[in-house]
Amino acid sequence: MLKAGSIWYPINLLAATVYAESLKLGNSQLNSFHADSFAIALVLHGIGSIFVGLLYGAMLPMFARRPIVLGGLITPVLWSGLLYSIMQLLNPLLASRIDWIWFMASQIAFGAVAGIVVVRQERISTRENLPFLVRAGDRSSRG
Fold it and tell me: pLDDT digits over 18-32, tens only?
């Protein structure tokens, strides 16, 4: 909003990932509302958010010793590196206009907050937390 001057600018860029009509928009048109681009961007952002949330929700508790480092540094660097390497194929318009420093900063902030949430959760012991030899000798779960 501050950089482009319009909230519709990033929404139209995101829609250009799968919607060819958005690729044809000029700078002034990227700053205006387009219902079709909005709907597509909403679905894309929703799907992406669900998958990232599932990834963090499943991954961070498994590495409970340092979830803030994993969520706030390692995962955002890997995720941003992956996107940087394939963005030209996915969305050339977005690739040419994305601010990678700001993108990385937002990914790091999100991951650090996710790690803090995991740290604050109560740990629940499960069978997987038992040493291997104890689990291997446990015959009560076999039918």
Answer: 877 766 777 778 788
Question: How far apart are the C-alpha atoms of 97 and 134, rounded to whole Å?
Answer: 55
94 burial type by CB count under 10 A (0-12 exposed, 13-18 middle, 19+ buried): buried
d(CA 29, CA 76): 31
Going along 22-125, which residue ranges are E strands? none
pTM for the full model? Answer: 0.65
Q: Who contacts 22 (Cβ-Cβ below 8 Å, separation ≥6)?
A: 12, 13, 15, 16, 34, 37, 40, 93
The tokens for 95 are 């690739």
> Tokens standing for 79?
């995720």
How far from each other are the two terminal CA atoms of the chain, in whole angstroms?
60
Q: How far apart (Å, rounded) are the C-alpha atoms in residues 31 and 28? A: 5
**Pair 79, 107: CB distance under 8 Å:** yes
Dump pLDDT digits (tens) for 84-126: 898 888 878 778 878 888 888 988 898 888 888 877 877 776 6
